[in-house]
Amino acid sequence: MRNTEDIRCVAQVALFGDKSAFDKLTCKYQSSIRRFFLNLTMGDAPLSDDLAQETFIKAYLNIRSFKGISGFSTWLYRIAYNVYYDSVRAKKYYSDIDVAEIDKNFQTNNEFSSDKIDIFNALKILRKEEKTAVLLFYMEDKTHVEIARIMNCPLGTAKTYILKGKEKLGVYLKNAGYEYK
Amino acid sequence: MNTNNEDEMLKKFFGENKTEIADNGFSRKVMQKIPHEQSKDWIVWVFAIIGMGLASYFAISTGLINSLLMLFTGISVYYLLIAVFCFPLVTFLVLFLQKNKYVGLGQF
Questions:
Q1: Which of 1.10.1740.10, 1.20.1560.10, 1.10.10.10, 3.40.50.300 is the CATH number of A125-181?
Q2: I need a labelling partner for A38 at 20 to 30 A (CA). Which of A61, A141, B59, B99 fits?
Q3: Is B34 within 8 Å of A30 when comparing Cβ atoms?
């Protein structure tokens, strides 16, 4: 489905409340949004599905605020980013608990965890913002401008997050003996 | 390791770990949780009826309908017959020209 088709679906939802048009958009973007959350939550599939569901419901309720200046996908990632950081802020209450230790002891087991352990370990060394920017750039193929829009930060800041994340991951993968070529 | 190599390495690393997640009923769950909105079609009908009512009121009160009827009754029957016969002829002519235009474009 091209971008123009996205806009057609959005118009159908906004003007006529056409749920089947929104279903098409959900089917198209569910994989990328769930993958984005899955990587941000270090493989917690139930949590990432809940966050993805919240993202799509918020998108449906606020679809009239979509101006079409950026693509629908960028707008959706912006909502996803806000949903994720809202959930992180909500969990700040538990910040005294050693989250890393809990992760180690109660590693979430799901269909993705066995073959994704490397990427989750690699992402753990990054700061939240760097992780988000790197995932959007390398995993979700977003441009610097789109990332700046999603993260609501200046373009230079988004570039810095990617650069710092890239440097850290480069060193980590090199030390972990990751074979490039 | 230079920046380009690092870039390529990360692209490869993330590419290897990029998986498509099967829907497995996720979209259906989202659609079920979407709040039900009441249809607003009735607004269109209300405004259409109000508009038609106002138009009829002004047409009758200003005598517009009477003058239109007078105008039509004043036209010669022959003119009306010519118009009725010409209408399909003009329509067919336009359709014929349009068809030829598209055939012509198709040759390029």
A1: 1.10.10.10
A2: A61
A3: no
